Amino acid sequence: MSLLKPFDLSVYVITDTRLSRGRTNQEVILKAIAGGATCIQLREKDLSTREYFHMALALRELTLQHGVTFIINDRLDVALAVEADGVHLGEDDLPAAAARPIMPPEMILGVTARNVQQALQFQEAGASYLGVGSVFSTETKGNTGKPIGLQGLADIARRVKIPIVGIGGITAQRAGEVITAGASGVAVVSAVVSAPDLTGATREFAHAVSKARSQA
Amino acid sequence: MSLLKPFDLSVYVITDTRLSRGRTNQEVILKAIAGGATCIQLREKDLSTREYFHMALALRELTLQHGVTFIINDRLDVALAVEADGVHLGEDDLPAAAARPIMPPEMILGVTARNVQQALQFQEAGASYLGVGSVFSTETKGNTGKPIGLQGLADIARRVKIPIVGIGGITAQRAGEVITAGASGVAVVSAVVSAPDLTGATREFAHAVSKARSQA
Predict the structure, then answer these.
(1) How far apart are CA A45 and CA B90, in angstroms?
(2) Residue A143 pLDDT > 60
(3) In this complex, do B48 and A92 lie within 8 Å of one another by their Cβ atoms?
(4) Angle between helical axes of A25-34 and A49-65 (0-180°, round to 10)
(5) pLDDT of res. B140
(6) Does pLDDT of A27 surpass 70?
(7) Three-state DSSP class for residue B185
(8) Which pLDDT score is estimated for B39?
(9) Residues B94, A77: C-beta atoms closer than 8 Å
(10) Residue of A nearest to B53 (CA)
(11) Nearest chain A Cα to B82, which residue?
């Protein structure tokens, strides 16, 4: 029934050049893909629109070549201009209900939700998936607020029909619990992009997700 | 032949709350409209997308009520979401050629041009009008670079078919010269939004533009 292209949230890597130890996003993403990343979100806060657009264009090319889902944080116009697979909107970005009507129906709309009420509201507004968290406590800038825990995530997963991805403080050691609690995938920033062995770090997440699923 | 809604660039007022002496954009715009502003551009650089969206929504309502053209700076997604009449793109924003294909054909695309080569390029890319300048030297942040002068503006006006609006350092005293040089209107920031008598300041520009046209 869905017009959406299939997408795989299993290992969802979010960029942040401030945390990438001097590596470019191209390098970070290629290494993450080599380790099994299934979805890449471009998120950079300190660029002009023109710079963000050019970075998005380069990463769109790269993710297409590798068959990986490509999502742009915040900027729906940039996502439309580079034909990204989707856009992810947080609480400081366009409201989901304002964004959905100006998006092609097949385009993926991800929205950040912190509780069941928001989750139901964003599902109703046309979200394709929800980023749910913070699951655990985290130091990554922009992921603030009290952690909702595995129970908070499970509550949301039970109430919505769309897939959810856990975000916030998730380590490879705890990724399995997040899947078992009802998430379709785990979203990570620093645990991957700051890792000296970025491919190895991503692979640990991919293994943990697979293992949790096979035990379900 | 054009799909575009008619628009009137004659007195084109650009917001900047940093320069508005503590007045809200709603107040600034109502006073500018009372003085004869024909086009309003929302330009604010220090807001989150969510804040920009809510401000744009309020100003869309207000400009519709008064039959004034409403343009959003930089954020095409916000412009689409609030159904603004158009978007204005500068050199740090989305490239015109990337924006036009994701815009409804009747939506206005304004682009900043500094010389004939850019002007022809942006016309070709589907610009509806050009913001040309800086015409004179200016202190307003964001309008940097050597002034192109009335001659630079006239050179561009002669070479393109789309209307142009002069911007940068234009006072009511010199607005007439800008029209005579070939512009369809004058764009102003501080000369209007910083004026203690904002309506009176706008009216001076409106009179100067009308007078220059009647003498053409």
Answers:
(1) 19
(2) no
(3) yes
(4) 30
(5) 63
(6) yes
(7) strand
(8) 98
(9) yes
(10) A94
(11) A98
In this prediction, residue A129 has a pLDDT band, given cuts at 50, 70 and 90, of very high
B79 in Cβ contact with B72 (< 8 Å): yes
Q: Which residues of B touch A93 (CB under 8 A)?
A: 48-50
Greatest Cα pair distance in chain A: 46
In whole angstroms, how large is the CA radius of gyration of chain A?
16
Selection from A119, A13, A125 nearest residue A69 by Cα: A13
Contact B94 A78 (CB under 8 A): yes
Q: What integer best gives the mean pLDDT of chain B? A: 95
Q: Which domains, from first to last, does chain A contain?
A: 11-214 (3.20.20.70)
* Chain B positions in Cβ-Cβ contact with residue A95 (cut-off 8 Å): 50, 53
The size of chain B, in residues, is 216
| Structure token pair of residue A145 | 């607020």
How many other β-carbons are positioned within 10 Å of the β-carbon of residue A43?
20
Closest residue in chain B to residue A104, using alpha carbons only: B102
Residues of B in contact with A50 (CB under 8 A): 91-95
User: How is residue A5 written in tokens?
Assistant: 């292209």
Mean pLDDT over B142-164 rounds to 91
Q: Nearest CB to A102: which of B81, B93, B94?
A: B81
Q: Given an 8 Å threshold on Cβ–Cβ distance, is B50 in contact with A92?
A: yes
Mean pLDDT across A171-199: 97
pTM over 0.90: yes
Assess contact for A164 and A157: CB atoms under 8 A.
yes
Name which of A114, A115, A209 is nearest A170 in CA terms.
Answer: A209
The nearest CA of chain B is from the CA of A169 a distance in Å of 25
Closest among B48, B97, B101 to B75, alpha carbons compared: B48
pLDDT at B1: 47
- Total residue count of chain A as it appears in this document: 216
Question: Token match 């508005």: residue?
Answer: B20
Neighbours of A164 (CB within 10 A): 27
ipTM of the complex: 0.94
* Residues in CB range of A156: below 8 A, 6 or more apart: A113, A115, A116, A119, A130, A132, A164, A182
Which pairs count as long-range contacts for A57-60, CB under 8 Å and 24+ apart, including other chains? A57/A82, A58/A26, A59/A25, A59/A26, A59/A29, A60/A84
pLDDT, averaged across chain A: 95
Instruction: Name the nearest CA neighbour of B114 among B87, B139, B138, B147.
Output: B147
Tokens for A116, please give them. Answer: 């069941």
